[in-house]
Amino acid sequence: MSFLMPTLLLLVLLYLGAADFNISSLSGLLSPALAESLLVALPPCHLTGGKASLRQRRVNETKGITHNFTVTSCRGRRDLVSVVYSSGRFTVTQLSAYQVTNLVPGTSYFVSYSVEKGNAVEYSNRVRMTTLPRRKVETLKVGMARTGGMIVITVLLSVAMFLLVVGFIVALALGARK
């Protein structure tokens, strides 16, 4: 029984050490805008300039597709979604992700990175991600109601344009008299 504990600890450490860095799926926080694409977090900053290979394959298949690109530079910590500015009324965010396109709607994929920088190669964990199912346009609920603020701004802009046109006509009339 005493040999079982170090063996389990070694297996856990080997399992955790299998990936040099982690990527994650944020399906609850960030979902794809289209049914044919996924957003995957970029590799970490210490791999800037490295040659990245993103592998994607369907869950029930053995072959996949590889996307190659150079890891972009970053300053400071790079999150999938980072807050650039926040006030009481609105928040500006920046998206740092790689978009995998031309996928089948409503399908699960495994996504993982391998990044070669110099003589070293680092691997990410494998993440399962699912594209959105395709829906009919009639079932989408798009709220296009006018708010009070939109109506006030429209009225103010219309009045300002009317006054501008009247002022232009008056200026032309006074300029023609001289």
TrEMBL record:
<dbReference type="GO" id="GO:0030855">
    <property type="term" value="P:epithelial cell differentiation"/>
</dbReference>
<feature type="signal peptide">
    <location>
        <begin position="1"/>
        <end position="19"/>
    </location>
</feature>
<protein>
    <submittedName>
        <fullName>LOW QUALITY PROTEIN: uroplakin-2</fullName>
    </submittedName>
</protein>
<keyword id="KW-0732">Signal</keyword>
<keyword id="KW-0812">Transmembrane</keyword>
<dbReference type="GO" id="GO:0016324">
    <property type="term" value="C:apical plasma membrane"/>
</dbReference>
<keyword id="KW-1133">Transmembrane helix</keyword>
<dbReference type="Pfam" id="PF07353">
    <property type="entry name" value="Uroplakin_II"/>
</dbReference>
<dbReference type="InterPro" id="IPR009952">
    <property type="entry name" value="Uroplakin-2"/>
</dbReference>
<feature type="transmembrane region" description="Helical">
    <location>
        <begin position="150"/>
        <end position="174"/>
    </location>
</feature>
<keyword id="KW-0472">Membrane</keyword>
